[in-house]
Design goal:
Blueprint (H helix, E strand, L loop, with lengths): L2 H55 L30 E5 L4 E3 L12 H6 L1 E5 L2 E8 L8 H51 L14 H49 L7 H28 L8 E3 L1 H18 L3 E6 L6 E3 L1 H18 L5 E9 L2 E8 L25 H4 L4 H11 L3 E6 L5 E8 L8 H4 L7
Parallel strand pairs: 6-8
Antiparallel strand pairs: 1-2, 1-4, 3-4, 5-7, 8-9, 9-11, 10-11
Helix pairs in contact: 1-3, 3-4, 4-5, 5-9, 6-7, 7-9
Amino acid sequence: MRLGTKLVLAFLSVALAAVLLVAVFATVSTRSEFGRFIFDQYQTAIIDELEAYYSRNGTFAGFQLPMGSMMRGQMGMGGPPERRGDPITVADARGVVFIPGNRFKIGEILPPSALKDSFEMQVEGETIGYVLASQEAFRQSQAEQHLVERVNRTVIFASLAAAGLALGLGLLLSRTLTQPIRELTAATKAVAQGDLDQQVEVRSQDELGELARSFNQMSSDLANAQMLRQQMTADIAHELRTPLSVILGHVDAIEEGVLPPTPETLHIIREETAQLSRLVEDLRVLSRADAGELSLTLSPTAPEELLEKAVLAHRPLAAEKSIELQIDAEDNLPPLSVDPDRISQVLDNLLSNALRHTPEGGSIRLFARNADRGVEMGVVDSGPGISPEVLPHVFDRFYRADTSRGRELGGSGLGLAIARSIVESHAGRIRVESQPGQGAAFIVWLPRVIKKQVPISENRGDSPAP
């Protein structure tokens, strides 16, 4: 059974149950309340007539129960005086019955229990008699019964109309609820077959609308991930092909006797091999990070020591380009619970990137400062800066702002991606700030304490922003 049919049957069942209960209660209540209303009117009319008769005559002698419209023609008062079962019994002030009813005969004395349930008639403050009425013995007139039947028929017709309306609303609501589900099902099947560019219409702001938005986001992310994977495969092939071509070219030249196996030729082959080794290692680090297998060896480490270690490693290259390296660390910085080797790798990547883009005679400043719930460390260069359209992509794998730039200038394009992965494995954040012509600042935020060692894949998106 389809979901739409189930929803229609559910709406119809609930509506029919509710309508049936309302119809039953309305029918029973209408009959009961209408009968009580008619009986109360009849009783009041009889008592008023009795009191008026006694006021005029000073006695009940000769009193006859009124007939016609007041009696509704149903009191059975046209029969013998001794007739029982009538709804009204009338007794004088002594309790002696003179109008029989309710199984009491003329001349009987009402018992105390009957007097307690009776209505006491008074004229000028004097008790003149008692009226004992029984609704159970009261019968409605034919016209009154027809009125109740017409009311009941109206209730039944209204119930049937409500059931039909419930059926129509059930069909409408079922279509409204199942239409987005059918669209999502079709789009999901298309995604399963490899068509990732699927988007469904968001028709509401409820849970179904939220589900549609989540599906659209998932589809976009999958399409983007596929594009990035294809691009990364092409980039890896390109990065591997270049040094391999150089190595194979030199080896072939040596074998053919075109180039002698001199130290210079062997050095070129060695450098290209080292480049391949670094690229493979970078890819290994990223693959372990993606798999959540990049573990950390945490230990308390002073931020100043990390900055000094990075400057010491890159000071010779900075001296070659006449670039000044500065360290600006606040006093009393708390030690960080980090893997010092991994964080040093981050700073090395950032500093190497800054040295490539800082012109000769420029400067690079490394800083450490207190931040909200952690410490910020950063590398600020005096290079040309980064254009706004490039900023969102600087941490993407194999991304280069200048695609024509050689590898010897631009690296493999994995350094910043690795830096982000390592920082996020420490429950931290890394960001870049830059304006064209004003240099660039790469800032790393790390929490003061990492309570437990967590794989990268479990940290991404969960740690607080700097």
